[in-house]
């Protein structure tokens, strides 16, 4: 995730603003139009004359997917002036509006500190949504339309504040066509990866790697995964729980040494440390580098830059050795994204109703078709023709089975620590610090977080 609320996709993340003009407010003389039925069983009880604003993160998934749910809301509440705003810098764009007490009614959150918003009760408890009737499945509760783990995602201290919308995963991406042409086999351990990088550099003019250097979190994720596979799940638990010396674990230092070698041995596309996600992904898609780390939004974000026969493919992060404590197939993934309803919104019930529409089967199938992404509802990809890239992700998810976890929690719970981890990763890849110094710096940041009484603590 970016340190300024821009992109990690990021997670993630992407271009072009859209802000259609809001229609005139409904006249006071017009009758209030409310949705019939108790909010606990049907939909949210909405004042249909109130304006509604949805803030869309204009990233890898774009904004075309928002048209269907917004049109359905307009059809349901024709008096409502419905406004779509979009952007990438949520911190700068929305934090002032939270302070002023006029945030949008529903937000696709990529960049705001969700844990802090929940702790300060600035977002609405949306738990009641789970027991509402699914928008397009009469008699079926929303919770019964969701895939396992979705209802429990986005819960802080027992309260559900966030609704995910995609089933995400991330790994290392490459062109299967390019791999086949050169007879290269995807490596399962990091030493094997470095050996392949040496072969690529020696035998071709293609750079072995590139990454989204301005957003170093893109590379932190795979490095942490390599360490996780070597040390096992206990490492993640210690790091997430801010335990003393967690970041001093030999597996983390070892992984940092391995990833720094990408820079030290000239395996990175020149200038990678200074380019953004759009540039790095475009260079990769045009064949200037073999490997790039990214999440499942990569094709939707950069697929237009690749040749039609590119055969975009994702595989799990390499581990360290045959003696790793977690299998190669292990992935980070699961429910992802965060739709939130600000507690101080002018029309929170409208925001909740739009959210109910968005996670309907019809809208989720539309999202999957437009973005080539798996979604959180059962049957959400039924009838959707998957691309080569999407199929590779589905195969990786199936192979992972129970060996899948939804990211490192410290990155979700502690934004300052996340920001500091980005700084530390940048220093590591710029070779400004040694791997051991990186480890010590990360431990210092974690200890500062643990000792700060103003930061609410969570436990894995």
Main features:
single chain, 460 residues, alpha/beta, Chitin_NgcE
Structural write-up:
It contains 17 helices and twelve strands. The strands form three sheets. Strands 6, 7, 8, 9, 10 and 12 form a six-stranded mixed sheet that branches. The protein has a four-stranded mixed sheet with strand order 2-1-3-11. It has a two-stranded antiparallel ribbon with strand order 4-5. The longest helix has 17 residues, at 435-451. It is an alpha/beta fold.
What value does the Rg take, in angstroms? 22 Å
Structural category: alpha/beta
- Topology pattern, helix = H, strand = E: HEHEHEHEEEHHEHHHHEHEEEHHHEHHH
Strand content: 5-15%
Number of DSSP-assigned strands: 12
List low-pLDDT spans: 1-41
Helicity level:
25-40%
Q: How would you classify the quaternary structure?
A: single chain
Please state the overall shape, judged from the principal axes of the Cα atoms.
globular
Number of helices: 17
The end-to-end distance, rounded to whole angstroms, is 21 Å
Mean pLDDT: 89
